[in-house]
Design a protein that fits this description.
single chain; 501 residues; ten-stranded antiparallel β-sheet; 10 strands; globular; binds NADPH dihydro-nicotinamide-adenine-dinucleotide phosphate; binds protoporphyrin IX containing FE; repressor; hydrogen peroxide; heme; Catalase
Length: 501
């Protein structure tokens, strides 16, 4: 009954006092051999040099050196919990995915994160928040790797490494650099919508419990008859949206969101989200006023009203942060029958990127770790490799004549649709109202309150007033915001002391 996890303190409390001191197990090496001492290395005489034969000391030092895996290249700082998705409405006309059938309950894991900071960075800084969910369905893992924003900064994965380079530390000074950030944003007008959201107080949520989650991309749903629909996911916080002002965010302790989530779940105050979808009939995509696959755009609610389909509740903390959260591996490519990718170029890039990252960061067999292992049975022809745990069963190749597993092409039939065209490198063809500024302008004009607008202006001005931001860059910043809305640009100009209009 020895503590096998970080719950050691609970174990200690249970076995406390005198019994704890007498009934304790003998320390062992990782090979289970009783250890000779918890404190003293083997030396030649009490003051002499140490011996190479002290395999226990060597194991301890060597294992310690290997306690880390590389941190995630983005979204390094985060925390997570387990929960359950319950579907309350019938959406079988849109998807045959088993986890979305009325009455279904699916165990899940979430990892919330910030994007640009390192593993130990502060939780409350201005940044989008990751909202990555793994659903352990009976058809295998379905991962929805979203953010707390319905949109993103760019629309082509080609720009992702450059975008991230501009947001993280410089290679020369190892400092973050707001001039570099505004340089990238002002040269990438498609960023305006997401930067507007980021600069509102939604860029500094009060906690992970008080923010919405969005699948962000458009995905494909198909029903049992093979009818197709485009879908967007919205997880609306039942705790209510709560944000921090820039000053409040600056004053938060580093691990404020990690602690908040852990403590809420420990005290039984289980956070929940109402799950909604927007559904677009397959054929409407071609002529929709916005490109429905452009990640810098939302589908206005008036066009496609969100439909409530269920509730998602977090009920259990992980027991071992490293094993279950640091080694959690989310992949936008994990779809289950009834769900597939859309042609969103960002999504297409991400389908490759994540499993590649996991093979580097965790290892080729990351899917065999308990947190990533599907609850569904695995019958795969992949085997061996570092840290193999799963046994190959029967024949190890396909086709074979010995009864090995056989794929079922029927299952993903609804995913197929016709595409034709010339191979090009170009931006999306424009739909009627496509424009980089029209949606952030709607946010400014229609959605934000006066207070929200005041904070948006002061947050932008604060950010672009960093000492490294040059006078020329400030002019570009003003132009960028004037393109969103003249009033916004003028107010930013006044705040930054930039003349002219
Ligand atoms: P609606 O008026 O129907 O919806 C506006 C939505 O904006 C709300 O439902 C809410 O979405 C979100 N919102 C409310 N307050 C804020 C805030 N202070 N900061 C950021 N978002 C807020 O209009 P449309 O659907 O036509 O969208 C208008 C604009 O609203 C869009 O251009 C976009 O910038 C923004 N928006 C739209 C969303 C969508 O999916 N249509 C989602 C989020 C923002 P929620 O309940 O998801 O928080
Ligand atoms: C993490 C790549 C866009 C949400 C990551 C990681 C990579 C990556 C390599 C680290 C994975 C790991 O080591 O575990 C990319 C690329 C993108 C992109 C190439 C664009 C082409 C996005 C978008 C969203 C998003 C648009 C949200 C809508 C996340 C989240 C995580 C993450 C939530 C953290 C997952 C976790 O908690 O483990 N991304 N990303 N990313 N990304 Fe992206």
């Amino acid at each position: 009954d020895a503590p096998s996890t970080a719950r050691g303190s609970e174990w200690q409390a249970k076995h406390g006092g005198a019994a704890f001191m007498t009934d304790r197990p003998i320390t062992t090496t990782d090979a289970g051999i009783p250890a000779p001492s918890d404190e003293h290395s083997q030396s030649v005489g009490p003051n002499g040099p140490l011996l190479l034969q002290d395999h226990y000391l060597i194991q301890k030092l060597a294992h310690f050196n290997r306690e880390r895996v590389p941190e995630r290249v983005v979204h390094a700082k985060g925390g997570g919990a387990y929960g359950v998705l319950e579907i309350t409405e019938d959406v079988s006309q849109f998807t045959k995915a088993k986890l979305f059938q009325k009455g279904a309950r699916t165990e899940s894991l979430v990892r919330f994160s910030s994007v640009a900071g390192e593993l130990g960075s502060a939780d409350a800084g201005r940044d989008p928040r990751g909202f990555a969910i793994k659903f352990y369905t009976e058809d295998g893992n379905y991962d929805l790797v979203g953010n707390n924003t319905p949109i993103f900064f760019i629309r082509d994965p080609q720009k992702f490494p450059d975008f991230i380079h501009s947001q993280k530390r410089r290679p020369d000074t190892h400092l973050r650099d707001h001039n570099m950030q505004w340089d990238f944003w002002t040269l990438s007008p498609e960023s305006a919508h997401q930067v507007t959201l980021l600069m509102t107080d939604r860029g500094t949520p009060a906690s992970w419990r008080h923010m919405n989650g969005y699948g962000s991309h458009t995905f494909l749903w198909y029903n049992a008859a093979g009818d197709k629909f485009w879908v967007k996911y919205h997880f609306k916080t039942d705790q209510g949206i709560k944000n921090l002002t820039a000053d409040e965010a600056d004053r938060q302790p580093p691990d404020v969101h990690l602690k908040d989530l852990y403590e809420a779940i420990e005290r039984g105050d289980y956070p929940s989200w109402t799950v909604q979808v927007q559904i677009m009939p397959f054929e409407e995509a071609a002529d929709y006023r916005f490109n429905p696959f452009d990640l810098t755009k939302v589908w206005p609610h008036a066009d496609y009203p969100p439909i409530t389909i269920g509730k998602w509740t977090l009920t259990r903390n992980p027991e071992n942060y490293f094993a279950e959260i640091e080694q959690a591996a989310f992949e936008p490519a994990n779809f289950v029958p009834g769900i597939g990718p859309s042609p969103d170029k960002m999504l297409q890039g991400r389908l490759f990127s994540y499993p590649d990252a996991h093979r580097y960061r965790i290892g080729a067999n990351y899917l065999q770790l308990p947190v990533n292992r599907p609850k569904a049975e695995v019958h795969s022809y992949n085997f061996d490799g570092p840290m193999t745990y799963r046994n190959p069963e029967g024949p190890v190749y396909a086709p074979n004549s010995f009864g090995g597993p056989a794929a079922d092409p029927e299952l993903w039939k609804g995913e197929s649709y016709e595409v034709a065209g010339e191979i090009v490198r170009s931006a999306y063809t424009l739909h009627r109202e496509d424009d980089d500024y029209v949606q952030p302008r709607a946010l400014w004009e229609k959605v934000l309150s006066d207070v929200d607008r005041d904070h948006l202006v002061s947050n932008i001005v604060g950010h672009a007033s960093a000492p490294e931001v040059t006078a020329d860059m400030k002019k570009r910043v003003v132009e960028y915001w004037r393109n969103v809305h003249k009033d916004l640009g003028d107010r930013v100009a006044a705040g930054l002391g930039v003349n002219g209009s």
